[in-house]
Amino acid sequence: MPQLNPNPWFFIMLMSWLTFSLITQPKLLPFTHTNHPTNKPSTTTKITPWIWPWT
């Protein structure tokens, strides 16, 4: 079964991960995000219970 032979596919996977890790990732990391996370206090909404007419 030829799909079990890792010889060509392992090299392709290794080269693609190295390309991503060494070239693509450092170019993408310096971009700034447009929406910075803020520490807003969480607002809790008042939950009114459902009134069942038959109880």
Gyration radius (Cα, Å) is 27 Å
Order of helices and strands: H
Q: Give the end-to-end Cα distance, rounded to a whole number of Å.
A: 68 Å
Biggest β-sheet strands, sense, barrel:
none
How many DSSP-defined strands?
0
Gross morphology is: elongated
Subcellular location: Mitochondrion membrane
Family: Belongs to the ATPase protein 8 family.
Transmembrane segments: 6-23
GO molecular function, one term: proton transmembrane transporter activity
What does it look like?
This protein is an all-alpha fold. Helix content is 40%, strand content 0%. The longest helix is centred in the N-terminal third of the chain and has 22 residues, at 7-28. The model has no long low-confidence stretch (mean pLDDT 80). One of its GO terms (cellular component) is proton-transporting ATP synthase complex. The chain crosses the membrane at residues 6-23. It comes from Psophia crepitans.
